[in-house]
Every structure is written in structure tokens, then in C-alpha cells.
Specification:
The complex is a heterodimer of chains A (182) and B (482).
Chain A (H helix, E strand, L loop, with lengths): L2 E3 L2 E5 L2 E2 H6 L20 E6 L9 E4 L3 E3 L4 E3 L11 E4 L2 H19 L6 E7 L9 H15 L5 E6 L3 E4 L2 E4 L4 E6 L1
Parallel strand pairs in A: 9-10
Antiparallel strand pairs in A: 1-2, 2-3, 2-7, 4-5, 4-8, 6-7, 9-13, 11-12
Chain B lengths: L2 H66 L4 H15 L4 E8 L4 E8 L4 H8 L2 E3 L3 H8 L4 E3 L6 H10 L3 E7 L8 E7 L15 H54 L10 E8 L6 E8 L5 E8 L3 H21 L4 H13 L8 E9 L4 E7 L5 E4 L2 E4 L17 E5 L5 E5 L1 H4 L11 H10 L6 H13 L9 E8 L3
Antiparallel strand pairs in B: 1-2, 1-6, 2-3, 4-5, 5-6, 7-16, 8-9, 9-10, 10-11, 11-14, 12-13, 12-15, 15-16
Helix pairs in contact in B: 1-2, 1-6, 2-6, 4-5, 6-7, 7-8
The chains are: A alpha+beta (182), B alpha+beta (482).
Amino acid sequence: MTRSKGNVIYEIDDKPAVEVLKEYLPEQALIEERDWMRYAISLALCFRAPSYMKDEEYVVRGVPALRMADGSIIVQTEVSEGTSVWFSSRDKEKMITGLDRMARQIKEQLGGEKPKLVFQFECLTRGKTMLREQEKLQLLKRFRQSLDPDVPWAGFYTIGEIGPVEEHNGPHLFTYVVLALS
Amino acid sequence: MEGLPEASGKRDEQVEQQLVLLQDENGRLSEQIKRLVRTEHELYQFQEQLDDQIRIYRHLYEVGKKLNATLNLGEILQIATQFVLYQLGFERCVALLYDPETNTFYVEAHDGYYDESGQSLLTDLRYSVDDPVLALILADRERVICPKGCDQHELVALGKALDMAEYVAFPLGVEPQPSTGLLIAGNTANSAAYRTQIQADSESVVGLANLVSQVATAIRMRREIQAREERLKQQAHARERIEQELHVARRIQQASLPEAVPALEGWEIYPSYLPAREVGGDFYDFLELEDGRLGLVVGDATGKGVPAALVMSTTCGMIRAVTQASDYSPGEVLQRVNEALATRIPANMFVTCFYGVLDPGTGSFAYANAGHDLPYVRRGGYAEELMARGMPLGLMPGMSYEEKEIILGEGDRALFYSDGLVEAHNPEGAMFGFPRLQSLVAEHAQGEPLVDFLMEELYSFTGKRWEQEDDITLVTLQRVAQ
């Protein structure tokens, strides 16, 4: 980020931030500010993860709005000029890998016992706004089958998740939290 | 050692070259990634469009079923507005319907949040059919889009009235049918960014077009069914009125017919009267005259129902009055009745009438005929016609009527009848006819009464499904053989 103030990024690599965003979007996709809503979920920014996040290389921050007038983009947290930033696009394969890993970890923690009840709290951005309805249902089905297809399952969608990682509280995005009771 | 700086410089150069190569490769990879991300976005958009199409058409199918299940206008429009809001994702929907009585369009239904004052303004809206605000929309048989920032004042004015910053309006109705209303879907300025965008060829606008077609059909069907029901109701009223009239006509006719058959020694008189469903104008009467003579009248007023009943009743009354006033001959009676009737009867009506006077002692039967079907007399195995010339009553004044006289001998039998018998049709369309009647009269010598015999023959001729078209009157006069 070559020019920023607060939570507004004006320039990336000395180019207006909006112009950089456009490089990742179909032609003529971004004419008006409201056009961005179509991509706001599926294209986000990544910052290098803080050192206490041992398993994560990046943290994701969304771009809820942008301003065509000055070419700036707005992020959810304050950013410092000179910080490196990456672009992150939806990646269904990674989501599948992540869910498989979660299922494996839950099974390990249950130590062979079957879960009796599962709670699911999922960021609504992981739903059909990011993937197609059918794809989302496929992911859920795959995850439930890998845990236990017959166990009662309840939960709700979330937005603006805040939670601790290694005793550091902070905002998260695109989060999927599962609590299995045995 | 001298070579060392050179070697070092060469390595630096190589490193520089490799760095440049790597940076180039990095740039190329970066561009490839951007291209991949762009392509992925496009693919997703395309898939989303397909998903939307499938979703909308599934819901449209359901909407079609719901629309087919109701004729309630409120329900039809509620189904439509809910589809617009909850399936197509527009913020607001307003349905205006055409009121033919006032030649205006008014708001019949609306959905999407309007506050109280907004609702009040909306429901009070009324546009004359030639209001310039609607002119563009009504002129376009498909749809009109008013985008945000539109510069067409009339469209913007309608948007303001409906509190929509952008909208698409569809006339309800397919050519050549006139538009029965308008369906308008749109968004306010504040919500437009979060709602379905109004784009000419978007799935939502195409889906809306499909919905409008279904709604227009449902409204048209509803109106047609209502009109049909109204017609049926009117027809039922008309039938009821006709039945009442027929009832009145039947009562008039029954009241005009003699209650009893006169008893004459040495004579048998046998009347039969079978009214049609739509009462005709048949009548017969027996008049007890001076010196023990008997007047016998058989007639038929043209037409059916109350008019025919009134004319026949009047004619009966006149004949009775004339015969009681003086001892007129049959021809004179008919002449006088014709004079009186000709000035009073409606122009398109007349009465056929046979009038005869029997002297029971001598068997003399004097008669005159005003255009009625000729009676038959059976004597010696033959059926003779009782012929006498004369115009029907009521056609024109100044008519005279030929008079004839015969002597009815022992065993002779006269049949007086109306055209309902001879003009009855069988299923093939053939008429019963005079020759058949004449031969039946001739062949029937004894046994059951002639009247019953003729009716059996008639039923056998017409078949079981016969619907009697006209009154049938039969009167027999027989001199009993000693």
C-alpha cells in the first residue's frame, strides 16, 4: 500500500486502489460503486498474519465499499502505509480441504466417540453469496457425512465474527465454527 | 587474485539477469493469476445466471399453479407482488388496474414497505387513460424501463408518485386485447444498491415478463368467467321471467276453455287439449244457443305465450258476446268478430277459427271457417273435409265468410283440430300431415275414442324424444248410432 489513511487505501503500487481491483475483475464489471457489491464477498484483501497465529500465513479483510471518485477502497480495519497486501479470491478446493481437516480434528478430539449433537456457526458470506447454492449444499453434505450423517445438527449464520486466537481477540471473516458434543 | 573481481562482477551480472528473468516470470504469473480470477468471476456470474433462471422458472411454475387455482383478484395480485419482492428481489411492486367506468387506472395492490402517508398517497393515485404519465408505458406493448437518472419527465413523474427511483413497468394484456392494467416493479434510491438491478435483458426482468403474462391471462380469464357467469345469471333471470309469463299464459288459456262438455242426447262430444311447453293460442268452446242448438268453436291465435293467450281469450269472449247478442249465422258471427278484432289486434297477429252450429234434433250442422284447418267428417268409411272459405280473423276488416251446412247422420263423426297435430315432426323432419290424418280418421271406425287413437298414432310417429312444438286441440262430435 503506497498511500493510505486510517482504513482507506488510496493507492497500491502507486496506482489508484480501485484500478488495481479492476485488474482482477471482468471487463466493465466495475462502472458504478454499487457494482462492487457483486464482488465484495468473493474478492478480499489479505494481510500477513500476526506472529501469534501459528497456523495461518494471512488474515483476510474484506472491502465493504469503494469510492470511484478518488479511486480509494475501504477496508474493515486500520492499515499502515507501506504494508504489503495480497488479493484473495474464493477457493472452493481450499474450503473443502479446510472442512476435511476440521472433521479429522473433531474426530481426533472425540477419541472415537460418536457426536450426539453438532452446532454450526457459519459466516453468511460463505453461503450462496460466495458459492452457488448447490455448491454450498454439497460442502455441507460432505462435511456432515465425514462426521456423522445421522447426528442432530443445528446452528445459524453469523456476520462480523469476533473471537480470540491465542489469547488475542480480533475480527475474523468467512469463519466456520463447529462445536461437536459427545 | 586478479581474476576474482571479474568473477565476482560476472556473478553479479548473472544474478541481475536471473533477477530480471524472475521478475518477468513473476509479472507473467501475476497476470495469469489475474486472468484466472477474472475468468472465474465470469464463470460464476454465468452459473449464477443459470441458477437464477432455473430458480425463477421453478417459482414461475408454482405461481402458475397458484394463479390457476383462484379467481380472486386480490389473491392474483398478491401472488404477483410477492413473487416480485421475494423471488425477483425488487424492493417494491405496484399493480394498477383499468377501470372502464371512469376510464382511469387506479392502484389495486402494492407491496414493499410504504409508510402510512406513502400508502395513503399511493392508494389515492388515479390516472386518466390518456394521462401523459402513462402514455409511454401504454404505447409500448412490452415494457418500459425507467433507470436511475432517467431524463424522460413522464417516467420520472410516475416514479416519484410510486416512490421508486428506478422501475420497470409492464402493461397487463397481450395484443390485440387492450391493457387491463400495469405491473410496476422497482427500487427506492436508498435501497437500489442492495436490490435486483433493473437491466433490460436480466433474468429478473425476463422473469417479470413471464409473470406479467401469467397474471394478465389470469385477470382476463377471471373477467371472462365473471362475464360468462353474469350472462348465465341474466339468462336464468330471463328464463324465470319467461316461465312466469308462460304460467300466466297457461292460466289465461285454461280460464278461457270450457269447464264442462255439454250433454246432448244422441250425441257424443269429446274434447282434448294438450298445451305445448310454450303455450300456443289454441282454443275451443261450446256455446248453448236458443232452441237447444249448440255452437262449437275451434281456433288458434298466432304466436305463443301471453300475447297469444290474450288474443285467444279476447276472441273467445267476442264470439260468446256476439252469439248471445243475436241469432247470427256462423258466417255473420265470424264477420262481426273479425270487424271488432281487426281494429284491436296487434298488426302481426291473427286468429284462425272454425265456427259451427249444430241442431241436435235434425243433425243439421251449419258452419263457417276463418282460415282454420278443415275439419273432417267420417261417414261411410270415408273422411270428408268440411270446406268453407274465409280469411283469418283480425287480418283486415270488411271480410265475409262462406257458410255451408251438412246433415250429420247416425254414426257420422266430425273431427275438429288445430295445426299442432298435422304440423308435428318426427326425428327425420317429416310432418304428420293432412293426408295421414285424413286416412286415420277414415280408418278408425270403432273401439277407443278417436282422440286417443290419434294421439297414440302421433306418439308413434314422432318417437319417444318428441318435444311438442305447439298446442294440440282435438274435438270430436259424433252422432250416436241408434
